[in-house]
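Hello, quick one for you while I still have it in my head. A protein chain has come my way and I'm curious about its shape. I'm sending you its amino acid sequence along with the backbone structure tokens. I'd be grateful if you could look everything over and explain what you see. Here's the protein in full, and shout if anything looks odd to you:
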Amino acid sequence: MITSRENRWLKRFRAALSGERGGDEIVGVEGVRLVEAALGSGLPIEALLVSESGTRHLPRIAHVLASRVTVLRTSDKLFASVADTQTPQGIAALVRPRQATIESLLTGTPLLIVMAGVQDPGNVGTIVRAAEAFGATGALTCLADGIGTADPFAPKALRSSAGSALRLPIVHGASATILFGQLKMFGVKTLAAVAARFAEKNRKDNGPDDPSPLLRPWDFDWKVSTAILIGNEGSGLPANLVRSADARVYIPQAAAAAPVGIESLNAAMAASVLLYEAMRQRNTPGQPRS
């Protein structure tokens, strides 16, 4: 039973649940659903922290709680002092995520999602959740024009991923230059997601002489090795990444009756639509291309 605010374990949980990742790369997960996902993921669990009221969740996780996991107990007040949420459920864990590499994601016929400058942790987590749901084999993050992508293992991103970040192989902070070089070396087709309004304008401006293919989601053969590039929420992908891609892809939208038109889909929604089409084709034998 931990009774001191200065206890080393509480300090460790406080840092991890606030998003700090030390040299050992341990991350904190909070709440019964995420803790259950962490325990069931097969990843190394350093410790489980349970408050007095949090003990009610122990029967739910008993089927995935290994005997070797260290279980620490504390008061509700001390648990609240380390929690990242406003209404803590009284249960948290320290988990070590798998260490994926770019090379490890390029085996077989990969379907990858690359987030370049996606700053909102909620969007990052939702994209990772969609990636796992629709059969992606991995996710990567990289800089875009000096703009970094939110850490998929940060507290808000982890919650938005609903545990997918603990199961899907992820490479965080890859170099865009190195990444593109390796994707091309392994024959992975790169698709740059662009906003519908810009895609339509470019199609009209450039016509048939447009040097870069501009595709709708169903125009592409998703059964080949593919990486989807998703850019910043406001500015999208940088021009150099779009030019480096094998093709651009956009999601057509319904015509708007209002004069101001319809806003483009946000990063997480666009990624979800593209990933769904990839899964649909990959799961349909002999799927024809339109």
In short: The first strand starts at residue 27 and ends at 30.
